[in-house]
Design brief:
This protein has 166 residues and is of the alpha+beta class. Helix content is 31%, strand content 31%.
């Protein structure tokens, strides 16, 4: 059985970092610490999907201020893909965003994952997606995508992150 939990320990954080590197960046010959160059200002929020004590999926999001969350990284181990783990991670982020009155989740999706995000209710967002030469070498382009979170009252997400991580 797969469980999705908020990353709260150094061990879970290390498992998440390893999973992200193995799935997202090692195939592109990027260095192990590349995640730091992709960081954003804001409070980071991490989820880890585990099965039998092994990390099989992970998600990193950043509260970018106000009522927005940027989903930065999403990865599922190759042997676990197609079993709903990525969907579970994104839906857990959505559930938390809704409880905390965040209004919008946005992401910069790889061209290989756009359809996945569309199945979860994301749509193309306005603006120009960034380009990165290393990703272009591998045929990877990006698309700005967003999903709005239905809310009855607005709130500042920064208070939500503190209550979840503290």
């Amino acid at each position: 059985m797969v469980t999705v939990e908020i990353v709260t320990t150094a061990d879970a954080a290390a498992r998440l970092d390893e999973l992200l590197w193995v799935v997202l960046w090692r195939p592109l010959s990027l260095p192990r610490d590349i995640r730091r160059t992709f960081s954003l200002e804001g409070e980071e929020f991490e989820l880890l999907a585990q099965e039998n004590g092994q990390g099989v999926g992970g998600l990193v999001a950043v509260w970018t201020g106000g009522s927005g969350i940027e989903l930065r990284h999403l990865a599922v181990a190759p042997h676990a893909q197609g079993h709903g783990i990525g969907r579970s991670l994104v839906m857990e982020l959505y559930r938390i965003a809704k409880i905390k009155n965040c209004r919008r989740i946005h992401t910069i999706a790889r061209n290989t994952s756009g359809e996945f995000f569309r199945t979860l209710g994301f749509q193309t967002a306005p603006g120009q997606a960034p380009e990165h030469p290393v990703f272009l070498e591998h045929g990877i382009t990006f698309e700005l995508m967003e999903r709005f979170v239905e809310q009855s009252t607005p709130a500042d997400c920064s208070t939500a992150v503190r209550s979840l991580s503290g």
